[in-house]
């Protein structure tokens, strides 16, 4: 069968790659074409557009980049129609992907959606559109099944694909030596993969490094940028820059400062105590505070439905508070409490196998369409 996938961010690229790998086991004749990234490209098929040209963060940034977004939408629709896939698989990225789903449905192309849009967070009536344009929804958060049921929609819960990614990870045995990290304990800085979040968060993260002479700091750098780009932030600071090595870094990290997003959950799965940070544009944040209906922004807290990790949002994301929270989780009761709570999180998430389960369901659904 012909599978067309659309992933618009680094996390979607990761999950898309694992899904392609799993689909190849189910379907020996599988042919892939996609909007995605480097990880998907490694698994084969044809990359049409890289997610680096697609990811915009926040309401304001989306408005400022509308011309590019519309151009990408048009390009994607044209390519889907020309290729005529048997099934379209959309991975998260709802602002873009729900428009693609509507287009595909109008053109009689089956639509599978992997990793539900966060409709439970705001504008819940979007479920009505999802019911209309999506044939099969595959959810990765346990509470989403009940939420969709309230709206009269049956979905498949497949578990979380990050469990697959962590389970398949093989650590580099001489990682410290390769990157000259020495013997000091490591604090990981995960400022995200999008330009806007890096530029807002990394300076705050770096502002506390001078206060920890007994630790070494390392940045999990996004592969879509180069060393020169990061040097404008690091300057003369003694900070290591590591590309394509986030899991290796988390494997040895003592603690982490993490941009809100998928990385917060990845950090928890490696049992690394963390401080979660987020900064958006002033207008974006004002709109979000009016519309968003959830208590937390980090996946760690959302899944357990209680505060496990501290979230420093907007004006709270500053040198003083980041420093205070980091010290709190490096030693003593704060560290112990967070690590114990991670065990509760892992219990709720279940076991690996989301990619395989999703691939099986997609293949079986298409066999009986």
UniProtKB/TrEMBL annotation:
<comment type="function">
    <text>Condensation of UDP-2,3-diacylglucosamine and 2,3-diacylglucosamine-1-phosphate to form lipid A disaccharide, a precursor of lipid A, a phosphorylated glycolipid that anchors the lipopolysaccharide to the outer membrane of the cell.</text>
</comment>
<keyword id="KW-0443">Lipid metabolism</keyword>
<keyword id="KW-0808">Transferase</keyword>
<keyword id="KW-0328">Glycosyltransferase</keyword>
<dbReference type="GO" id="GO:0008915">
    <property type="term" value="F:lipid-A-disaccharide synthase activity"/>
</dbReference>
<keyword id="KW-0444">Lipid biosynthesis</keyword>
<protein>
    <recommendedName>
        <fullName>Lipid-A-disaccharide synthase</fullName>
        <ecNumber>2.4.1.182</ecNumber>
    </recommendedName>
</protein>
<keyword id="KW-0441">Lipid A biosynthesis</keyword>
<dbReference type="InterPro" id="IPR003835">
    <property type="entry name" value="Glyco_trans_19"/>
</dbReference>
<dbReference type="Pfam" id="PF02684">
    <property type="entry name" value="LpxB"/>
</dbReference>
